[in-house]
Amino acid sequence: MWAAPSRWGWLNLLTPKGLFAHDTYNKLFTMHGIIMVFFFLVPSIPATLGNFLVPPMVGARDLAFPRINLLSWYIYIVGGIFAITAIVRGGVDTGWTFYAPFSSTYSNTHVILAAIGVFVSGFSSILTGLNFIVTVHKMRAPGMTWSRLPLFVWAHYATSLIQVLGTPVIAITIVLLGMERVLHAGIFDPALGGDPILFQHLFWFYSHPAVYIMILPGMGVISEIVACFSRKSIFGYGFVAFSSVAIAVLGFLVWGHHLFVAGQSMYASMVFSFISFLVAVPSAIKVFNWTATMYRGSVSYDTPMLYAFGFIGLFTIGGLTGLFLATMAVDVHVTDTYFVIAHFHYVMVGGMVMAYLGGVHFWFPKITGRLYPEGWAKFAALVVFVGFNLTFFPQFVLGYLGMPRRYAAYADEFQILNVMSTAGASILGVGYLIPMIYLAWAWRYGPKSPQNPWGAKGLEWEQSPTPPPTFNFDVPPVMNEPAYNYSGEEKEVEIGR
Amino acid sequence: MADSEVTALEHAPGLKHHFDDTEQQLESSTLGMWVFLLTEIMFFGGMFGGYTVYRNLYPDAFASSSRYMNIPIGAFNTAVLICSSLTMALAVRAAQLGNKKVLIWFLVFTLILGCVFLGLKVVEYHEKWVDHHIPGPGFRYEDARYFHQAQILFFLYFAMTGMHAMHMVVGAGLLTTLIIMAARNRFSAAWYTPVEMIGLYWHFVDIVWIFLFPLLYLIGRTK
Amino acid sequence: MTHQVVPVRAYVAVFLALIILTITTVVVSRIELGEYNFIVAITIAVIKAVLVILFFMHVKQSSSMTKLFVGAGFFWMAILLVFILSDYFSRGWLPGATWWRS
Lengths: 497, 223, 102
Fold this sequence. Notes:
The complex is a heterotrimer.
Chain A: H1 4-12, H2 22-41, H3 44-58, H4 66-88, H5 102-106, H6 111-138, H7 151-183, H8 196-230, H9 237-250, H10 266-294, H11 303-326, H12 328-334, H13 338-368, H14 374-401, H15 415-445, H16 459-462
Helix pairs in contact in A: 1-2, 2-4, 3-6, 3-7, 3-13, 4-6, 6-7, 7-8, 7-9, 8-9, 8-10, 8-11, 8-13, 9-10, 10-11, 11-13, 11-14, 13-14, 14-15
Chain B: H1 22-57, H2 59-66, H3 71-96, H4 100-130, H5 147-183, H6 193-217
Helix pairs in contact in B: 1-5, 1-6, 2-5, 3-4, 3-6, 4-5, 5-6
Chain C: H1 8-29, H2 36-56, H3 64-90
Helix pairs in contact in C: 1-2
């Protein structure tokens, strides 16, 4: 529903002149960016599926710090209130990136309120990450070794590392920005001796790893779904697990590719460009291993698997176009065009939102104890896939032809592609609406689910009753087989417990 | 591994239901606290990054404006914080031994030293106020060449010491809580985790100051 | 988890070392050493920080997990500093791109 501003935005771009006043358009895309990045994509999977599933998956009664977990939820609400207040009182027009000195000196909108919202919600993110790290380290059930952890948990562990190490840096960046906006001392203002690129460095030190906060949990979900619906152990478990951590670590070394045209040293750009290419390696490992898992598996086409197919295809397109952007010479051409928009929506919406929907469908029976209508779900998955591609594929072309982002109007020759995009956005909107309706219905009136409707492996499916009670397990479980043991290897005899 | 015998009635002091035993809980708390301190390192790291960049861009201006830092107060405050770290460490030691009286006394010492530090910080800030060295519209600087650059240094000075002081205020609040808890016999040799965790936090704040002091006060003193 | 009680003597020794290092750093800052003033000041600060971390914060007796996390924290801060500085230090290498020094 918070994607709504983007809908209006595309609606605006139906005609070359635009339907909204230009500053309204600026506020719309800023609102869309801030809400979607900081209040949807970052917390989405960890705060919902992660909080629910990480403890049973590692065989724990609860997260290590349940109260801190609750606190993180309250903090999120407070941050959200600040952001919404900023919107209600007239909005912000800086873009979600808050680039200085526009945000610190020239913008007349509610930058500080929105910035406080982002600052506060960051603590929520940090506390979630802290909880997961400690839970994975200290709360694992007997026999749940690191090499048996579900890949969903590995992905969340890697995500948590980024949350813990990256988020504080954006917190201090925002503090400095707020101080600068009040004092005008010039720390980010070139007119007063400051350097605006320093702001971009500090900002992207968090915000680039943050895109891995958004995508890694999605990758974890896909690993679970692909293994389950191929009835095969995941191909190259160790590689998939470590590629999550590799993405998290490498992700901290590439932020400079956002600064290629900002005035960053060319030599630094070369290093950042090279490391950005390296990120493709662990990402490709994941994609190849998922497809290898499906190879000769007995694949069934249930709804979660449909979303997983969508994820793998769309993420691959998003990831490969990312390499175009990491290439310095090409990036100069497509920087701040719709090519960038299309690229990160393929990763974020085509990747992360697809994975989220897939995960919600996969674990819906576990979480609610009920089954959703499979026919409707498959139909919705199809609508989402078609709507998504119709929305964002034309934007690759638009961007390549040179249509810049963040403008409320455009040249006449871009109209056909923009109309396609707007039409796609409407279809995508319907595609998101359908699951909301039938899932809400199924939560209340759906048929009761058996304990393990998919025949999936993993401690969370062995746990009973469904949905789980407060402390998940009465008797601590024991993990006595490899992860994803779909091939039915013998369980170990229990030794010396 | 304790199974069914872990019931709500038989919990060890301070043990929460979702942990297997006290050791697991203590290890979790320690790791959690360190992860939190990790975020603190990165939080201050952002400011250290900004500081390093500007110091390299404007070395002369930074040397010039560090002349207006009050070294005697800065050095004395460093000693005060080191003392408070010692008393905090001894407080944790007293808690390990289950010695309530000594624990309370050392916590009170630590709190007093923390307040001394903050009081001297107020004196310093007041000096800056009198000299018009607070960045913003009222900023004045003696050497006109360095007006903008010095303003950036003072901006960083207030950002860094201000954030540090804010952590000290939070720490003082936590110490007060500890003193009250200790007075109510909440700690024993078997369970004193909060004392240990807040001790870690207090030492970390001390470490931040150990870096701030040479970086902000002792630049280019020989010129 | 090791939780031996450390004798008071050890704490006091660390404390004295910290005080002496503080005095040293103030004194050295008054001696002209050129570039080395900064290096000495930072070295002393690092030594002090390591003393506090190892002894006051008990990392010396802690599990290797704790040590790893502490190390990771400082390592990540180093990443932040080094990569940002790599930009600033290499900007002057290209002729004509010196607007920021104005």
